[in-house]
Write a structure and sequence with these properties.
This protein is mostly helical and 332 residues long. 73% of the residues lie in helices and 0% in strands.
């Protein structure tokens, strides 16, 4: 199992990224203690050169970290054919106790890594780097998440035993089963639809307001509703969206839509949901930076641009998810 190309790419890639972030964090501790933009000392000049180079390397490393969540899901989906009883990525992730925790920590890593890249981006646009201490403190949090992720991911792949029968999605996402997955599968369709489309409407309305005005109440509300939309979308995918793609009223698996039989539609669904939600959330996170004189205009421009990215991502996600309900004969 460890020789699967996806597994090799994930382990080696995560190892390299972890080493880069570890080195950058070590430099970050020095920057947090010694950084003084007003100084023209040799040490300050050395720190400025190093931080620009390191932040660029870390940025590219974290792009891999962001993409790795999709590579991990793809790999889990691909190796299910090698596992007894597995029908999709659900079976692969159920192969041992580290499967789903690794997925969850990777999702957390997606958002925290993307946040660091966003903050680094706007900080580099300012001549006095006012967020440099903050972004290196955040990098230590990224490092902590990545250490846990690397350990969990390695344990997951090393502990997979192809001879051990694993449970399939039909068991985990059964309406009559136990646990969170079964509870989401049993979530009533009509309330789930009302919840999803209501939050979508409010989120997009706030997004449009942010795009036009970039005012504080709207930026915070957009961030909150983007997060709420992400959660309600996950519920909706399990509760009813997946059913319309499968054309089966009892099949709630959120992973089968990644398969060839469904034209890999799950990948754009999750990609647009994740990116749209992130850009909506980050709009509110950077709002306090407007108080910094050198950052005010930079933040305003970023909020306007990122709110447009968020609206675009969430609208495309909703359109793709809704098309089977409109075009296909299956009805709930």
């Amino acid at each position: 199992m460890i020789l699967h190309p996806g597994v090799i790419a994930l382990i080696i890639g995560s190892g390299i990224v972890l080493l880069l972030v570890l080195y950058a964090s070590a430099l970050g501790i020095k920057i947090i203690r010694r950084w003084d933009i007003k100084s023209s000392s040799e040490e300050q000049l050395s720190l400025e050169r190093k931080t620009y180079l390191v932040s660029t390397l870390v940025q590219y490393a974290l792009v891999f970290e962001i993409l790795s969540v999709f590579l991990f899901i793809y790999t889990a989906e691909d190796i299910h054919t090698l596992l007894a009883g597995a029908m999709c990525a659900t079976g692969s992730l159920n192969a041992n106790a580290f499967g789903f925790p690794t997925l969850y920590i990777k999702i957390a890593s997606f958002f925290i890594s993307a946040s660091w890249i966003a903050i680094n981006h706007i900080d580099n646009k300012s001549e006095d780097y006012p967020l440099i201490r903050m972004k290196y403190k955040l990098l230590t949090a990224v490092l902590a998440v990545m250490i846990i992720e690397f350990i969990f991911q390695l344990e997951y792949f090393l502990r997979i035993n192809p001879n051990v029968i694993t449970s399939c999605c039909g068991v985990m996402f059964s309406e009559k089963g136990e646990g969170l997955a079964s509870s989401l599968a049993a979530f009533p369709v009509l309330p789930a639809k009302i919840l999803l489309y209501s939050i979508f409407a409010v989120t997009i309305a706030n997004g449009i307001a942010v795009y036009r005005t970039q005012r504080k109440p709207f930026t915070y509300m957009f961030s909150i509703f983007a997060f709420m939309f992400f959660i309600s979308s996950v519920i909706a995918i399990i509760s009813f969206i997946s059913l319309y793609f499968y054309q089966i009223p009892t099949h709630h698996c959120p992973f089968d839509i990644l398969q060839k039989e469904y034209y890999y539609v799950g990948y754009p669904i999750y990609a647009f949901l994740f990116t749209g939600s992130f850009f909506g959330i980050i709009v509110g996170i950077i709002e306090p930076f407007k108080k910094i004189a050198s950052m005010s205009k930079i933040v305003l421009n970023a909020q306007r641009r990122w709110s447009l990215y968020a609206i675009t991502g969430l609208v495309i996600f909703t359109l793709i998810s809704s098309l089977p309900m409109i075009l296909l004969p299956f009805k709930m």
